[in-house]
Amino acid sequence: MRMPGPIANAVFLVTLVGFFTHPASAFQQSHGRHSSHPLSLDVRPAKEIDERVAYEVNKAKLILDDLDPANLLASSYLVSAIYYHDGFLTDFPAERNSADPERRIVAQISNILSPERKADFVRLLHEVWARSEPLGPTRLVDPVAFTASSGGRGSHKYAVDLFAAEGTPVRSVSRGLVILADRDWNQVDLFSTTSRKGGNAVIVFDPDKDYFYRYCHLSTVLVSPGQLVGSGQPIGGVGHTGLNASLPGHGRHLHFEVNEYVDGHVRAIDYRRLLTMLRQWREVA
Question: What are the backbone angles phi and psi of residue 178, rounded to the nearest 5°?
């Protein structure tokens, strides 16, 4: 039986206060300094972590039960679960208490996201957009003034790394709606962003194409969830946040992804197509 709205909200407020009174050490990962090798995302199991995971998953469930434009972007973990392509976390051990907490949350939310619920979410994104005054033309631009790119074998199948000096402005590829803006990445805080690997990140929904653009490892984030952006508008700067980019020699680039929504399903665009898209945007610039 569902609790009435006021009672559910009160329970969540009390619970949330409890989370913030726990010592920060309870959320620290079990690894120490970075090495030259990728770090494991596993953690030392803790009651506080399990409680936080359960809280975030339940919060997403309550939002989905009464989804509307007012609460659409209230959970960054729900937004991430909507964004990630179908099957991304299918085999992730979401119930193992030593597994990456952020992915546990997103994986558990993904398990309750039917195509119909995803369709409802995207429909409301379009509704929010339709009620607003769209910013600028539908042109597409490079996300950053990069000097080199990489992707594919040995790197990313569904993303490209665009190399540029730290602090170089990162621009919105298209006009659209900001649906996620993680800005407070902290290496020792398991819940500072929705992805410890990605660090500070922005996701923009492009209603003209039903594309999601994700920008990761940002040094600064200049936008907020629910904000409208125009094509070419600065949304942050190149940085080295996130466990991957913070490793020695792994910074100085923008990690860029594009996922497309089609009839209740989200599909990742592979790096070959991404590189082709980047060339096309430069040709028409």
Answer: -70, 125
